[in-house]
Known about the structure:
Blueprint: E1 2-6, E2 14-17, H1 22-34, E3 41-42, H2 48-58, E4 63-65, H3 70-81, E5 85-90, H4 101-109, E6 113-116, E7 125-129, E8 135-140, H5 145-154, E9 162-167, H6 173-185, E10 191-193, E11 196-199, E12 209-210, H7 215-227, E13 232-236, H8 249-252, E14 256-263, E15 266-275, E16 279-282, H9 290-300, E17 304-307, H10 319-329, E18 342-344, E19 356-357, H11 363-369, H12 373-376, E20 378-382, H13 394-401, E21 404-408
Helix pairs in contact: 1-2, 1-3, 1-6, 2-3, 3-5, 4-5, 5-6, 7-9, 9-11
Bound molecules: shikimate-3-phosphate and phosphoenolpyruvate (PEP).
Shikimate-3-phosphate (S3P) is lined by residues 23, 71, 144-146, 149, 171-172, 175, 287-288, 311.
Amino acid sequence: MKYTISAPTNIKPYKVALPTSKSISNRALILNALAYSAQPIKNLSDSDDTQLMLKALQSNSNTFDVGAAGTTMRFLTAFLSKIVGQWTITGSARMKERPIKILVEALNQLGAKIEYIEKEGYPPLRIFGSAMEGGALELPGNVSSQYISALLMIGPSMKNGLQLTLTGDIISRPYIHLTLQMMETYGIQSQWKGNVISVPSGVYQSTSFTVEADWSAASYWFEVAALNKGCELNLQGVKRYSEQGDAKVATLFDQLGVSHKFSQKGLLLRNTGNTAKNFNYNFIEQPDLAQTFAVTCCCLGIPFHFTGLQTLKIKETDRINALITELKKMGFILSSNQVDNLIWDGTTCDKEETPCIATYKDHRMAMAFAPAASSIGSLQIEDPAVVSKSYPKYWEHLKAYGFEFSTKE
Ligand SMILES: O=C(O)C1=C[C@@H](OP(=O)(O)O)[C@@H](O)[C@H](O)C1
Ligand SMILES: C=C(OP(=O)(O)O)C(=O)O
């Protein structure tokens, strides 16, 4: 299925009921389970990734399919390792290509027993769960922070707690801080000094928890504001002092012609039209924002140099190549060292008349490209249902704002 999306003809102020964060929801579900808490989590995300976590935690089966949900795969692998029994965990075809060896080796060193069912280093996994000893461990911090968050959350349940020494350049740090901060909400205080994180052995306390709105989802609305002259939006539910690293989107978009103001009524965005000449940024702490910025900068004609993208190749798709291929259809020639950067120096080529954007089973490809209809008139988005991974109501909200849609099978 494909959507053909056309730019809104009438720009009117719009209030966006943002979805809540899948990252926070999935941590809350694991911490609630570890705390044996019967208290409900308020505002739990309606995303596929969170619904898959919920289903797994409520299931009586010993086999789990987590689809394309990275956090669900990584957090559940650690969680199941400390529960006595034999478990199988699998996922989508792409999940079977996303590495998990660092986490598996760490868990095995801490006393778990995990085997690869198909390819060494990748899901599916067979987990023989048991009580874990814990203790000191060295772990690369430069591949995925999700391995670290997964280990930290089960740290208190290990006999000797956990002392993780992170090696290499630590990526996605805000997600690790988010984990530690949520563990503290559930009664366990850890320490992060230099590259060592220490978690004491202990017992989580049951608590009520409310999930806040998702700053990564908010980024697509900053893009809408940047690409529509006269645009005024009111984003509901985002916290000003959030632990979500993607909250950085608000100040970064100043350079892309969007002002923001926190008020009692919500976060107010306004198109100012004042844009920078170039945009250079290191996305090491906000990897999920890279696609939003690449598409916005191209549409605004702002050359860019992005660094810190070393995790993009192992996400839902190889996001570096997906961006290069799809932006070319819109007339923009990008380049990359195929490791950690993405550059647009302003070079253009002929644009396809109505570009048909492939989404590679990646929700963020669909969400980042759709607002580009405002700058090129119209475009097509393939497999639009992918957005349900983090933001199921995205299309409904874009329609309500004024984008026009037609469907093709
Ligand atoms: O912990 C989390 O909730 C996440 C961590 C990040 O992954 P990496 O640590 O693999 O970069 C991020 O890209 C992902 O969307 C969610
Ligand atoms: C990378 C992402 O998710 P995950 O790694 O949890 O699948 C994402 O949502 O952009």
